[in-house]
Specification:
Layout lengths: L2 H25 L7 E7 L4 H16 L4 E7 L5 H12 L5 E5 L5 E3 L1 H8 L2 E4 L4 E3 L22 H9 L3 H23 L4 H9 L3 E3 H6 L5 E2 L3 H8 L3 E4 L2 E4 L7 E3 L4 H9 L2 H20 L5 H19 L4 H19 L5 H16 L12 H27 L6 H4 L3 E4 L8 E6 L2 E7 L8 E8 L2 E6 L9
Parallel strand pairs: 1-2, 1-11, 2-3, 3-5, 4-6, 5-8, 14-16
Antiparallel strand pairs: 6-7, 9-10, 12-13, 12-15, 13-14, 15-16
Amino acid sequence: MSRKGWIVWGAILGAALALAWTRTAKEAPAADSFVARIELNGPIGPAAAEYVNTTIQRATNDGAKAIVLQMDTPGGLLESMHDIINGILAAKIPVLGYVAPGGARAASAGTYILYACPIAAMAPATHLGAATPVDLGGSSPMPPPLNNNAPSASKSSDKAGNNAGDAESHKMLNDAIADIRALAQMHGRNAAWAEQAVRGAATLTANEAVAQHVADFIAPDTDALLAQADGRAVRVDGGIVTLALRGLPVRDYLPNWRARFLGIITHPTIAYILLLAGIYGLILEAFHPGSFYPGVTGGICLLIGLYALQLLPVNYAGLALMALGVALLLAEVFIPTAGVLGIGGVIAFVLGSIMLFRSGVPGYAVNLGVIAGIACCAMAILAMLLRLVMRARRARAFNGEAQMLQNTGELLQAVAAGGESWARIGGERWRVHSDVPLPAGARVRVIGRQGLLLQVAASGLGKGESS
């Protein structure tokens, strides 16, 4: 075998060994005890739920003694919240909920997740609460907070009324209350305040949460959290476990590429831009068939944007208004209406963009600056189209008898008096007739026309000059 062949085979063998070693190192359980840490920052959505649940499983397989779920979230989607809670309740090792660092919050869905954790800790200057569920259907508002001095069940039934929307809202509210009360009772926490957080959007600071038995203790950092949790008996899926966590090292588990990708495309502003890029890419491909780049790019962006939309709380009335707006803007191009269709399209597009993601879900709204920028671009394009249309209406004719009589050109062949020859006029070859003799290359002016035969005369300009 040649030297080159040995080098190639050596490189392949080295790559295979490196891959096998990396996979073994990644999959082999750690020899020493450690605590895994998951950071749940930002809105809770499909990407966050997948990241938390897959990481819980990975950390368990790696031999972690416990998991610290460090949170700073404004809340998020109900379905994603339930996915995370189910993952925590099914975990074989304890999950320690920790609202940190200072200034962080576990609002809305974050409060439910903290209640689901066997240990609930908070850093100084943090808060939790405001867990009233949002009616994602958008058909009716949630009922107002009730007086906490009276029994909640009777008050809910008294105010339900006969309205179907109110009944649906009360069903959602009571279901949310039952969820958080069940979590509070499982871990021996304050169930009454949990109901207030859902029914009346109550909130607590870290000190107040510990005083009211909502949180277990305050910990300034992860080491203090592990030290204070050490020796406590908690309930996990496998039964009662006594924590022995003091002094254990902490290993961070970062999101994998899939979780990062989902986190990017499910950001409402990114999903909105992908959707628009897909639509306009396909439109450009339709106007310029065969260019391929706009069509391929637009198709990919549109499919990714639609995938993101099916994971997000989309208002389909807003999506329909956006589609109507784009259709009206296109109609303005083909059916000039002095801006009537175009202005209507811009208005429909902006209203649809604002309505696209259902309001009230924390962290799930399109950036208004992006909407304003795209609307301004649409207005600029519309103004340019209107300017072109008006200029076209005012422009002089570029064909016809009147325009032809103003053209000048150059004789390609000499012409005798009363004879015919050929001339280049307006970039085209024309058969011409002249009453006087003219040499080849002479400048001529059209003075009449009989079908495809032009009557010309000397223009008075020298050869090589232009009219």
